[in-house]
Specification:
The protein is an alpha+beta fold. It has a single domain, classed as 2,3-Dihydroxybiphenyl 1,2-Dioxygenase, domain 1 (Roll). The chain is built from three helices and eight strands, in the order E-H-E-E-E-H-E-H-E-E-E. The chain has an eight-stranded mixed β-sheet. The longest helix has 10 residues. It starts with a strand and ends in a 10-residue tail after the last strand.
Length: 122
């Protein structure tokens, strides 16, 4: 099963302040919009999603697997006994999403958009 690439997502109070902090550590913006309250920063293969509270709710951290076949992966996981808190659903224009929670309460989000590719700085 290929879940896609992994972004570790953090809830931040200010995407600008957090993005600048991670840029000081050598990360570069690959995606996002400060005005919308989110950014994805990259350093080599390390990817961190920085999301203001409106995107993360009460979660401080979430694993986001992107770009995989969400519907097929969710079906395979369900067949192996995994339960989803947000069942797999296809997007209106393709793609899809699903959410499950690991035994320690960490949220795991599977999602993809039509034609989505792993973005890099530049």
């Amino acid at each position: 099963m290929n879940l896609g690439w992994l972004d570790v997502c953090l809830r931040v109070e200010s995407v600008i302040r957090s993005r600048e902090f991670y840029e000081g550590l050598g990360f570069q913006r690959a995606e996002g919009d400060d005005a919308e309250g989110w950014a994805v920063v990259v350093n080599g293969e390390s990817r961190i999603g920085l999301f203001e509270p409106q995107f993360m709710g009460d979660q401080r951290m979430m694993l986001n697997f992107r770009g995989g076949d969400v519907l097929a992966n969710a079906a395979a996981l369900e067949a192996n006994g995994y339960e989803f808190v947000e069942p797999a659903q296809a997007g209106k224009k393709g793609g899809g999403s699903a959410k499950l929670i690991d035994p320690d309460g960490n949220h795991i989000f599977l999602d993809t958009a039509p034609g989505e590719t792993k973005k890099v700085p530049g």
